[in-house]
Amino acid sequence: MKxxxxxxxxxxxxxxxxxxxxPYGPNCDVSADALNGVVLCPDVPGVINQSIVxxxxxxxxxNPIANAAVNVQFGSGPFCFCATxxxxxxxxxxxxxSLTLRxxxxxxxxxxxxxxxxxxxxxxxxxxxxxxDWDGATxxxxxxxxxxxxxxxxxxxFDFANDGTVDLTDYVVFSAGYTPSHxxx
Length: 185
Ligand SMILES: [Ca+2]
Ligand SMILES: [Ca+2]
Prior knowledge:
The protein is an alpha+beta fold. It has one domain (23-178). It is 20% helix and 22% strand. The protein has helices at 2-14, 16-20, 145-152, 168-178; strands at 29-30, 38-39, 52-56, 69-74, 80-81, 88-90, 96-100, 103-104, 114-118, 121-126, 129-130. The chain has a four-stranded antiparallel sheet, with no helix packed on it. The chain has a three-stranded antiparallel sheet with strand order 1-3-7, with no helix packed on it. It is elongated, with a radius of gyration of 19 Å. Bound molecules: calcium ion (2 copies). The site of one calcium ion (CA) has 8 residues, from helix 4. The site of one calcium ion has 8 residues, from helix 4.
């Protein structure tokens, strides 16, 4: 009986049907790749574009996976998450999904700072999760003067493009969160 169960399990595991729902990272598109990390931001008065992660989830055969359970998980760090933050979503018929990252804080150069999974399989493991809401110690779910002070000191938690310097590209992201000043509901 045990042998039979194992054989059935192995069959299920290696059948094309089983693999059809397993994501294959290199075939998936994730918009956060452009910055080599994710950006969180408090969502009032509105969501900033940079905090929206757009994804197309595909399997090893490069076919989109419909109705895949997508999840984002952050590493343990000085984050502040809005109560409106939703960590889970589901892909549509074309394998597409989006997640909006609502909060503040910073982890940089840390394995599993932000991990995106689909149907339990890892799609991306980002080393960087950053936000305009960062005062040097924590995110407090508000982008305000304390964060400006830190930004002008060129803290690399504001290097949103993750290219080693705080520059104009990063200022664009910071100012989206600061003007107007964003906070959680
Ligand atoms: Ca803050
Ligand atoms: Ca930069």
